[in-house]
Specification:
By secondary structure, the chain is of the alpha/beta class. It folds into two domains: 382 residues, Alkaline Phosphatase, subunit A, CATH 3.40.720.10; 102 residues, Arylsulfatase, C-terminal domain (2-Layer Sandwich). Strands 7-6-5-4-10-1-11-12-2-13 form a ten-stranded mixed β-sheet. A four-stranded antiparallel β-sheet has the order 15-16-17-18, covered by helices on one side. A hairpin with a 1-residue loop joins β8 and β9. The longest helix is centred in the N-terminal third of the chain and has 46 residues. It comes from Gimesia alba. Keywords: Calcium, Hydrolase, Metal-binding, Signal. Its EC number is 3.1.6.1. One of its GO terms (molecular function) is metal ion binding.
């Protein structure tokens, strides 16, 4: 009998253990199934994050695209197709009316005048501008699984090593007796695009009229400069480097990256390509295929070549089957430059600035109101327009919104997501206001239909020009009602002192708080004086002597 009890007990324990084991096994299996399903769902969700290509033209006017300007005399079929297939933002602005400051704002979501650069632009050998601890768009997207690449004109500084040791500065080039030959071009470049979040970089250090004339891949100069060349400015160049080849070369490289990363993008590893063009900036050198095509002048020919570059990118996306879930943004860093020869274009009834006053470098609309087209077939309805006030600093918040990222307090302090506008869900203004900046550091703030400019004259290169034209008899500030006067012809500051007071206080608060968006106050890099440039211009009672200027 005892043996029977033992046998029965053992049998019971065995059945219980078996049941427990089966239960545990099923629980584990279910857990693994759930985990796998969750992982699959996450992967599926991740694969829905779009590829992002940000194409930044250099010195191209709002009026240079037919889809934006019905009176445009330049044929732009690819940009027109991009616009008709997506959304045109009619009130988009660069944060500055010149090159470097705008690029800083695009990649950091922070107004340029908060950085150490309070006016002007950098040079080809200038030191890094983006602060080491500053979160950038590519860094943020990398944290969310993106492959990141920059192809084209950098112009945000990088640290070149000198032959005698140390790092090059602006003065390493900006002297006729010292044009950059003291740099050791065989040494790795420090603090370039790879240091701010880009997995890959190919391009040039600054504008194509600024030495050194050499291609850079990641942190290495592609060859050692051994000859002197001048594409407006004279300086060290690689013997095979020719300015006319740059736009085709960077276009080819961008298409290669699309082709190489399309398969990964389909599997949930999207890419971000920041594609800052060298064109149609000086030197204005369209390739033989495009020379004379516009029937207007070389600048307009170059714009047509830019249009073809956009077409090549779009065809690559379609060929890879990833065009539907790729957000392509086309815009420009500022308005058209007077180097484009406005007289030649006016004679052919073409206006790069469209109906806006001024051009590159100015505080007027022509300096910073830029073309902005967003094409994303999976999310943006074709043939749509948005009149939302938009700034190029908005890329940071928009990209974060797309991937569901929460930005730290110190990031994107002047960035607002325009995703609701893209998706057609915005029911009110997304931005409270936007701040504009001229090459001389003159400030302007825009809110609703009012635009306040804290300077007399253009603040840049057009008439009335500081340092050239007598500004002493002009009011120290300008106020325009853009609803009634988009051409900024009638200064109404005397009739609306309450608006002047309100907008001045708002701009000052943005400067004081180190941000223009809700959040914890942040520090600026150096003091910000919103009146300084305007006051300086007002004191110029006689035209100053002609001085050299930087063509950014």
């Amino acid at each position: 009998m005892p043996s029977a009890k033992v046998s029965l007990a053992f049998s019971a324990r065995t059945r219980t253990s078996g049941f427990l084991f089966l239960t545990a096994a099923l629980t584990l299996a279910c857990g693994m199934f759930t985990l796998c399903c969750t992982a699959s769902a996450d992967a599926a969700e991740k694969s829905n994050d779009p590829n992002i290509i940000y194409i930044l033209a250099d010195d191209m006017g709002y009026g240079d695209i037919r889809a934006l300007n019905p009176e445009c005399k330049i044929a732009t079929p690819n940009l027109d197709q991009l616009a008709h297939g997506g959304m045109i933002f009619t009130d988009a602005h660069s944060s500055s009316s010149v090159c470097t400051p705008t690029r800083y704002g695009i990649l950091t979501g922070r107004y340029n005048w908060r950085s150490r650069l309070k006016s002007g632009v950098l040079w080809g050998l200038s030191r890094r501008l983006i602060e080491p601890d500053r979160l950038t768009v590519p860094e943020m997207l990398k944290q969310h699984g993106y492959y990141t690449a920059c192809v084209g004109k950098w112009h945000l500084g990088m640290d070149w090593t000198l032959k005698q040791g140390g790092i090059a500065t602006e003065q390493s080039f900006n002297k006729k007796t010292n044009p950059g030959w003291e740099v050791d071009y065989s040494k790795p470049i420090q603090n370039g695009p790879n240091s701010v979040g880009f997995d890959y970089f190919f391009g040039i250090s600054a504008s194509l009229d600024m030495p050194p004339y050499v291609y850079i891949e990641n942190n290495k100069s592609q060859g050692i400069p051994t000859v002197t060349k001048a594409f407006f400015r004279e300086g060290p160049a690689h013997k095979d480097f020719e300015a006319i080849d740059v736009l085709p070369r960077i276009t080819e490289k961008t298409v290669e990256i699309i082709d190489e990363h399309a398969a990964a993008a389909k599997k949930g590893k999207p890419f971000f390509i920041y594609f800052p063009l060298n064109a149609p900036h000086t030197p204005i050198l369209p390739t033989p295929k495009w020379q004379g095509k516009s029937g207007i002048n070389a600048y307009c020919d170059f714009v047509m070549q830019v249009d073809d570059t956009v077409g090549q990118v779009m065809r690559a996306l379609k060929a890879q089957g990833i065009d539907k879930n790729t957000l392509v943004i086309f815009t420009a860093d500022n308005g058209c430059s007077p180097a484009a020869n406005f007289k030649e274009m006016t004679d052919k009834d073409h206006s790069p600035s469209y109906q806006f006053r001024g051009h590159k470098a100015d505080i007027y609309e022509g300096g910073h109101r830029v073309p902005f087209i967003a094409n994303w077939p999976a999310h943006i309805k074709a043939g749509t327009h948005s009149d939302q006030l938009t700034c190029l600093t908005d890329l940071m918040a928009t990209a974060a919104d797309i991937v569901g990222a929460k930005l730290p307090e110190s990031a994107g302090v002047d960035s607002v997501s325009i995703l609701p506008a893209m998706e057609g869900t915005a029911t009110k203004p997304l931005r409270e206001a936007a701040v504009h900046h001229s090459i001389r550091g003159a400030f302007s703030i825009r809110k609703d239909h009012w635009k306040l400019e804290l300077c007399p004259g253009s603040g840049g290169w057009s008439f009335p020009k500081p340092g050239k034209d007598d500004l002493s008899g002009l009011p120290a500030i300008q106020l325009y009602d853009l609803n009634a006067d988009v051409g900024e012809q009638k200064n109404v500051q005397a009739e609306h002192p309450e608006v002047v007071k309100e907008l001045t206080a708002l701009l000052q608060s943005y400067a004081d708080k180190g941000r223009s968006t809700p959040g914890k106050p942040q520090e600026n890099n150096g003091a910000v004086d919103i009146f300084k440039a305007g006051t300086s211009a007002q004191k110029m009672k006689k035209p100053a002597k002609k001085r050299a200027k930087a063509k950014s």
